[in-house]
Amino acid sequence: MENKIHDQNSSRVQLELNLGEQLNALISASHALNVRTAALFDPALQPAAFLIVRCLLSYGPASATFLAESTAMDRSSVTRLVTQLKRLNYVKSETHPEDRRGVLISLTMFGREKALDALKEKENEFYKRISTWEDSKLEAFIGMLKCFNGQDCQD
Question: pTM for the complete prediction?
Fold first, then answer.
């Protein structure tokens, strides 16, 4: 009996190691793709600048504090990157309409178009990977990812 439990444990440990290996591969590939996407946006900018652009694209106009929190950067880095993005006409800043002391940063039309073009390339890479999957396989994958991410787990 004890031997069977040991075999089940070692089997589970191996499965968990395999999962970790695949998650590391996904994270590494995703990071590399994010860096390539940032370079498509503007190769002269650091990839971190594109994180700010993506945040603005997703959430709309935002304060530097919100951008710092959302991108896990310190406020001085955000300020420096926003200054570069402004100089290149990707973002603009305006007085906050509700708090005249505050400033909101937003994408310019040019910045929005460039970001969407760069992200299309990233999407194409992911779509290539799933293009041959049957819908049921894709639905199962989405369900497992949701569960893994702590969302709706359905058995």
Answer: 0.74
